[in-house]
Amino acid sequence: MSTLEINDLHVSVKTDDGDKEILKGVTLTVKDGETHAIMGPNGSGKSTLAYSIAGHPKYDITSGTVTLDGNDVLAMTVDERARAGLFLAMQYPVEVPGVSVSNFLRTAKTAIDGEAPKLRTWVKEVNATLANLNLDATFGQRSVNEGFSGGEKKRHEIAQMELLDPGMAILDETDSGLDIDALKIVSEGVNRFRAKDAKAVLLITHYTRILRYIQPDFVHVFVDGRIADQGGPELAEELEANGYDKYVKAAVTAG
Amino acid sequence: MGLDVSSHLHPVGSFDLADHPVPTGREEVWRFTPLKRLRGLHDSAPLTGSEYDVKTEAPEGVAVGYRPVAHSDRGLSGLVPTDRISARVWQDTTRVLTVEVPAEAEVAEPVFINFTGTGVAEAASGHLLVKVGAHATATVVVRFQGSTTLAENVEVAVGDGARLTFVTLQDWSDDAVHHSTQHALVGRDASLKHVAVTFGGDVVRHDVTATYSGPGGDIEMLGLYFADAGQHIEHRLFVDHNAPKTRSHVTYKGALQGQGAHTVWIGNVLIRKEAEGIETYEENRNLVLTDGCQADSVPNLEIETGEIAGAGHASATGRFDDEQLFYLRSRGIEEKEARRLVVHGFFNDLIRRIAVPELEEQLAATVEAELSKNVLKED
Description:
Distance between the termini of chain B: 56 Å
Number of strands of chain A: 12
Shape of chain A: globular
Domain ABC transporter (chain A): 4-249
Radius of gyration of chain B: 20 Å
Strand content of chain B: 35-45%
InterPro entries (chain A): AAA+_ATPase, ABC_transporter-like_ATP-bd, FeS-cluster_ATPase_SufC, P-loop_NTPase
CATH topology of the domain at 4-92 and 166-254 in chain A: Rossmann fold
Radius of gyration of chain A: 18 Å
GO molecular function (chain A): ATP binding; ATP hydrolysis activity
Strand content of chain A: 25-35%
Oligomer: heterodimer
Family (chain A): Belongs to the ABC transporter superfamily. Ycf16 family.
Protein name (chain A): Fe-S cluster assembly ATPase SufC
């Protein structure tokens, strides 16, 4: 079980013109068993939130707290966060030339569990997970993300999520750039994961399209580094009809 | 005195030592090399040392042995010394270690030449000739280890339609100085895979040139090197496309770690006017693992005809990619293990392409041993 609590989080990045504040006080709690969608226009800071929680060195946490089941996430190294049960499915997964997918998955699983998985069951599990995501068995011999199509990269991210089995998964624009078939395959993967006991999911997206396949419990509208509105699934439908305009205008007025 | 060399892409050689003055270090071909650490190889140190031991393993059908120069095929490849060290070795050579693969022989097992140096005080010299008959297939692996001061000339002659994999593995002790001048002649529709793997030694400098005796020849050059503190590792390559429809593909990858680690890669390619329809690509990548290292990487391409299938080169030198490390660590993998994966991955593709199964495991183990010196060192 996992509960992620984000409290008044402020995050900056270094730019040529000095530090720029991207997150301006984010407060959000995701309990186990819940799926939260974060929706917002480009540049609103959605990805910054995801990468800050995962511990990317580019982002500087200036104030606020993030805890996972009460443990201070911000005090952990990147790999400690993953071992504590956090997973980030990235929008732009990174190529690691010469490292095979199967070696990578086994190494990560060993790191997360603290012991090597049992060979026979592990191979079966990997093959089944890849097959569910429409990735064939030779996929394991390819170098991590190297030469993958956009859809393959996203399906590989979901395969990792299912195999590493974190308590809390953050999906950063996993739907972007996917055609409808790939979107369905990826959504089925996420739903398989959610069907397990006590999984928490934070789904970051620009579009409402993926929410037709992955039903969120809560929807948060993210504008200018803050949560501008929140509600149930019906809020996504309203955004679908009316877009982000009224929130963006309000933020400009407030700013 | 000295030869009139207008460009190092048009080298002019000579067997006459008088044509090769002692280099000063300002010459284009010597400017990267620490001459002071060559123990006089480039000057006049006697090359008569005998502090080494050579053991050969030859599969059936391959003749390996020393022949007096007069009864050898020395010069078969067309090697003409273009530097003083090579000219001195040529002058002093009395015997030629000859590997002869008869025409049409299919030799699955590699020929091994194991050279073990046993001292650095007296400089030694040698001449190796690898001769592969038409339509034959063979693999020759030269393994160097121990302590030495060695200058050598190497000739490789690949007959028409033949296929040769030629590997030198420089696994020297820290005090070795090794200068090697190599020339390969690749026959019509023949292919040569030339592999240089350099881990050890104080100064290792290899000057490798290759050319074609007919159209359709294919040269692949693969290199893997790992320089530690204070080491100088220099690979100079020159492919002379002098025949139509020939191909050359060069990939060298290196890692550097420790104060004063220095690597040099020179990738020269000349496409002569008559070399229509050729294809060439050169690539050098360096991974800098610590502060205090220097990687020089210089590709040169001179094109005298536009009627070619393709020509290109790439060179990149960089540190660990932070995004790669973040990605791996975000999956729970500890930083050291992530670095280890990235470095093995960097070399893996190259090791696979060498495709000599007898060496694969050893190379992966050597990379691991090098990593333990810095990247994986216990704090």
